[in-house]
Amino acid sequence: YDLAKAIRNRAGRSYFKRLKGSLNRSENIPVLLFEAGYGWYDSREELQAAGIVASFTMSDNLGRWLSETLPEKMDYNNLRDVWQELRTNSEFHSFFVWQDIDFFPILEERLQFLVERLTLACLKAYEEVSDVLGSRVVRAFLASGLSTCTSHSAAQAAHRASIPVIIWQHGGIGYMNQPLVTYTDIMGADAFFVFGDGVVEKYLEPAKRLGTRLIPVGSASLEALSQKKLQNKKVEKLIPLSPGKKVVLYVTSNFYRN
After folding, report:
1. Phi and psi of 142, rounded to 5°?
2. Helices (DSSP H) in the chain: which residue ranges?
């Protein structure tokens, strides 16, 4: 069964509800859920009804992978040599100079940490995910974003095993220029589930460049929210509302915690 092909053929709003009625299979389709909350969590009933089950779930254990690759536990002299070579390389240094202002001294400690420490954590993540994929039958790698270097390493392990990586949009994007989406959602994914055609239009160019298929499927989280009967007694006390009359709520921002 080609999960990626099925996704392409049945793309559209409420994808898994469509899939529920059209997919007639006796066996389950095992997937790996990697930090997959948001839409994946809110569509778990549709996933299960379609026979798509999580054979394994993993968290992005950046902290643990860092602690397991402490310098006293591993030989990282080669990485020290790499950093020394980089920090004295004029071309590398030039990336941090803007209008004759040299930002390298400010960033040097962080860049050193990235090369000497995060490289080892990424290798640890890659090895651990590879072990999971090698010991279980997994048809797809599902996530809600690849926002850390270790999550990208996990996705690369899936690519190496010829397992499609599918990301599902989990926030309000597309209405403004958000360049990080290219690196946290599109880069590293075979398919990127988005809320609608507007998001597809916004990120079509980087998706083509990176070879990622953009598929508008809607938002399982918004659908789950729309099906709930929401009542907030505290709000009703603060804002007297007239029963039976329409209420318009003006939201100044959709950013988290605003």
Report:
1. -110, 135
2. 3-9, 15-22, 38-42, 44-49, 62-67, 77-87, 90-94, 104-113, 119-135, 149-160, 180-181, 197-202, 204-210, 220-226, 233-238
Residue 28: helix, strand or coil by DSSP? coil
pLDDT in tens, the chain (258 residues): 344 444 444 443 345 544 444 344 446 788 888 876 788 888 888 888 888 888 888 888 888 888 888 876 666 778 889 999 999 999 999 999 999 999 999 999 999 999 999 999 999 999 999 999 999 889 999 998 898 999 999 999 999 999 999 999 987 787 777 888 998 899 999 999 998 898 999 999 999 999 999 999 888 877 777 666 656 666 666 667 777 778 777 776 665 544
On whether the CB atoms of residues 120 and 74 are closer than 8 A, the answer is yes
- CB-facing half-sphere around the CA of 11: CA atoms within 13 A: 18
Distance of alpha carbon 205 from alpha carbon 49, whole angstroms: 35
Antiparallel, parallel or unpaired: β 101-102 and 97-98: antiparallel
What distance in Å separates the CA atoms of residue 250 and residue 99, rounded to the nearest whole number?
A: 42
* Tokens read off for 249: 């709520």
Q: What is the pTM of this model?
A: 0.76
- Tokens representing residue 173 in the block: 């994007």
The span from the CA of 209 to the CA of 227, in Å, is 38
DSSP codes, 155-185: HHHHHHTT--EEEE--S--SSS--THHIIII
